Amino acid sequence: MAKVWINDQEIELGDDERLNGIQVARRAGVDVPHYCWHPGLSVVASCRMCLVETGSKNAETGEVSMMPKLVPACQTPAKDGTVFVTDSDKVKHARAFVEEALLIDHPIDCPICDKAGECYLQDYHFEHGQKERRADIKPFTSRRRPMGETVTLFVDRCVMCTRCVRFTREITGTNELMTVQRGAHEEIDVFPGFPLENKLSGNVVDLCPVGALGDQDFLYSQRVWFMKTHNSVCTGCSTGCSIRVDENQDEVYRVRPRENPHINKWWMCDDGRYGWRYIHDDARLIGPEIQNKQDANADSGANGDGPLPGPMEWSTVIAKADEDVRAAGRLAVVLSPYLTVEEAFLLCTYAREVDSQVLIALGPVPQLGEDETFPSGFTIHAEKAPNRRGVEEVAASFGKALSFEELLPKVAAKEVSAVWVTAGYPQANWIDESAASQLAKADVLVVQDIFDSPLWQAATHRLPSATFAEKEGSYVNFANRLQSVPWAIRPPAGARSEGGVLWRLLGRTGLYQAKQVLAEVTREIPYFRAAADGVSEFGIDLTIGMLAEA
Amino acid sequence: MKPDDPDILWVDEPKLGLAGKLYLPLIAQGLTTTTKHLFGKKVTVSYPDSEPEIANPLIYRGVHRLNRDEQGRVKCVACFLCATACPAHCIDIIGTESPWEDREKYPESFTIDELRCIYCGMCEEACPVDAIELTSLYNLTGRSREEMVFDKEKLLSVFDQTKDAEPMKSQTVANSLADTTPPKGGAS
């Protein structure tokens, strides 16, 4: 057990902990300002913002001997007896000096800089800087050049922390970014003809402590202080990166990675970062409908028994769907890998209540290419669905689950007369004509989806559903880690989350409560038992529960 | 500026004496003022029969205008600081990359709901480039609510109408400063 002193506080470290001055100070609740240091990257100690006084305390005599000069806290390991002083006049003076030097030729274009409001340079200037700029040069604009398709560099805003350069060297291994020239002329750049293009490139924008690297996708679309941030999970692939969704008045503006040491560390891929725009697509399905089977086949709109006149009330459609499914007899349900654990559980519970011999099938799991692993270990999975593991385990607890391909002939052969399909695939072409026509043989075909498809056209009961940002619930990633997240925005008017609809169908009152359902799931299904005591923001490893069971 | 800044002078409220605690002298004082005004010259105007005289258009808070720069382009850089400062949430801006070489960002659309506005002047104070200003136009009428939502063109046209009578305040202040302050180092 090592003892470290931060100012006057004593901090105890575990035996195998290797922490630097910044990390130890943070544990003591003391913030040491820094630009170049990042926990996920190597230490260069070049920004000099984290300079502190350090020394050591003799365990026997209690005598403290300090080093004469200031040292960077990021590069100073905390050992037994190490003393850090972070609030002395000497340290404060050094910080003010570094801050002033950084601001000598930094353009004062905060009003149009996208980083303003979450900029370290701004924050540290207010906390540690001087009141006025003494330099007589007051640049107002910054030179700008693109680094690649997605990232643009505002050259003069850069403080040369080289986080982005180290990122491309250590995390992606692609080495696109480099520093050119020296001294006051030093700049970030790419080699001509080799732009920044790798699948993690968007992360350099988050890494940048100032507004030097801008995201073309987000540039000038919203000021950061207008947005509210919500924790969420990326549903782009089975990695299930922890993310933050930034939203203003039910419109998402950007998606950023959220630190999670067990899954994505500090990063996320560009597919996930820019792949959420479908949630605001104009083609989103809106407004529930009921299509009369016979009329749809006859295709004659003239007679009086045509499709029920829309727009219909959700309560009417849900009641009618419930009535028709119960009247039909044998039932099959399809669980989409885009469902949350709670929704899959509610659907299975409902289906079992309607028909004790219900056929439960798993929806198709989209596969694209091969797993991509970066030198840092970050992996983009080929399995492009967030919750295959979760729905599989839920389905397994309700008896043997069929695959989608196994279900199709059974429906075509009229073994079941009602099918309830959940979809929610962002890919519009998730089902082809032939599969849809086989499912259309059922007398009652309920479909919950977000985009139009052949299946949607064939459905008798059409229930527009919600995307990941619009629903609360839990996802289980490829490594059996369960994460529970809240909703970030409300679904568009006329669409309802699967959970909300199923909650009504089961006759429960009030609003849909994913937490309450998850508590039921953990009671009923041993696989999910580890989540019974709550789920932290990093999620919970379900294999722990499985080991305990065994 | 931080609370412990040496340039800030913190002043306490003076303690009340016996006369102050009794309130009677203050009541007498107040009634004296009232009586004086009963018989004095009227300060109100019978609007709209007669129009008020605006003593200083520089500090009057009427209809907004969007200033133009030397090249006639909108001066606004779409920083959203006016929209942030606005307590009535009546300013709606859509910012985008500017089509000009020397400018980074500009407002694609800029609308002010003049009916929602409370004419507090916070937008003018917040603006870092002196692009939005309140003019001394006060008799603002319209036939519909939509008509009272002023867009960028309308706000620029207010500038064109008023720029001769009311030059840009930043310029006015700069000129007046140049007039009054003697050149440094003494006249040679």
How would you describe this protein?
The complex is a heterodimer of chains A (550) and B (188). Chain A is α+β, with helices and mostly antiparallel strands and 550 residues long. In chain A, 26% of the residues lie in helices and 19% in strands. Chain A contains 16 helices and 25 strands. Chain A has three domains: 2-95, Ubiquitin-like (UB roll) (Roll); 140-279, Alpha-Beta Plaits, CATH 3.30.70.20; 315-549, Rossmann fold (3-Layer(aba) Sandwich), CATH 3.40.50. Chain B is of the alpha+beta class and 188 residues long. Chain B has a domain at 64-168: Alpha-Beta Plaits. Helix content of chain B is 29%, strand content 13%. In chain B, strands 2-3-5 form a three-stranded antiparallel β-sheet. A two-stranded antiparallel sheet of chain B has the order 1-4. In chain B, strand 2 (91-97) and strand 3 form a beta hairpin. Chain B starts with 17 loop residues before the first helix and ends in an 8-residue tail after the last helix. The A-B interface holds A 109, 111-112, 131, 141-142, 144, 219-221, 223, 225-226 and B 1, 5, 77-81, 84, 95-97, 102, 104-105, 128-129.
In summary, what is this structure?
The complex is a heterodimer of chains A (550) and B (188). Chain A is an alpha+beta fold and 550 residues long. In chain B, a hairpin with a 7-residue loop joins β2 and β3.
Describe this protein with a few key phrases.
heterodimer, A: 550 residues, alpha+beta, Ubiquitin-like (UB roll), Alpha-Beta Plaits, Rossmann fold, 3 domains, six-stranded mixed sheet, 16 helices, 25 strands, B: 188 residues, three-stranded antiparallel sheet, two-stranded antiparallel ribbon, 6 helices, 29% helix, extended, disordered C terminus
